UniProtKB/TrEMBL annotation:
Source organism: Cephalopterus ornatus (Amazonian umbrellabird)
Transmembrane regions: 110-136
Alphabetical UniProt keywords: Membrane, Transmembrane, Transmembrane helix
SUPFAM superfamilies listed in its UniProt record: Fibronectin type III
Residue ranges occupied by any Fibronectin type-III domain in the UniProt entry: 1-96
Residue ranges that the Swiss-Prot or TrEMBL entry lists as coiled coil: none
Signal peptide start and end residues: none
The protein's name in its UniProt record: FNDC9 protein
Amino acid sequence: MGITIQNITGNTAMVIWPKMASCVDSFYSIMYHPNWNNMLSSYSRKSFQKEERVPTSRSSFVVENLTPLTTYIMCVTCQSANPSSDQCRVFNTLERDSASVSNTKKELALGIWLTSSVLLLIIAAILLYGCLHLLCHRRHERLQERNRTSKRDHGEAWTKNMAYTSEFSRQRQQMQDTEEKHPGGIQLATIIENPSVCNEPVMSTSKSQERAPVTGQCSAV
């Protein structure tokens, strides 16, 4: 069974084999292993690291995810039979191609950008929360200060009103006490304050005798 390895790159290789009429099984087994050592390794199936199964209708297969600059051995057998030396080939992978390196760099840059974006969003959210919390705290303090000022002003106005009411009640009580003690005090005070009342004529209203108008005297009063 002569197999050939073609299109070798840093990560892939194509294996081609001729169809065998004697292989009546349902699939081919493609086995490969890196860093093969003929002296220490045997051709048993357990000695191979990877194995792929391909339908018998195919005669080629592309192996992927290989390591660059590595020596591989690849064997093709019918179904689960152990390979022999004439069913295997040894090959070396190439350096990593520029497209793969570019894709790796792009993936790395994208990962870094995503990580940085997430961190910036978290930092921005923390700063925004801190600012909002500080603003709410200051607003609450201003409202409390306004409430205290309003209560203080209301208390002062109420105190002044009560003092005025008490003073007015006291003066009114003094006036009532004075009226009770000196009923004519108010009339006397009125006459003293209005001396012109003393000069007004006094008319007698007696029915028994009529007199001429007499000028009132303050001393008589």
